[in-house]
Amino acid sequence: RATLEDDVRFKVLFCGICHTDIHFLKNEWGFSLYPLVPGHEIVGEVTEVGSKVTKVKVGDKVGVGCLVGSCRTCENCSANLENYCPKMVLTYAAPNFDGTITYGGYSNEMVCNEHFIIRFPENMPLAGGAPLLCAGVTVYSPMKYYGLAKPGSH
Fold it and tell me: Where, by residue number, does the polypeptide cross the bilayer (predicted)?
């Protein structure tokens, strides 16, 4: 799709695989949209930014997890709980706001709302960064929520 004013376009360099990808490919949850390109542990290099993007610039190394969009206005989005937004846009196999279908990290390139982009530090090994965007978040989020993310707190 076209790059909008708050979007980031990037070339995909690495993409992990998650069992969720298998569920979607086999339509085991009953809501897959075909044709389907999976992948939600994505690392890439920014090739274009929209006119209002401030978080990253062309050439930056970035990552994207399981969401590429949300309404950004509901109660859940305001509380940084976009995964509960009734209008969230999954990284793949989901209708986007413009009516197109999203395709995941096994694509050559992707477009994502700036809010869902994570900029990687220069010294980050990119191949190892992809799994952090799903498995890493899955482990870290509850640890942070329950106050276990501090050394010696578990």
Answer: none
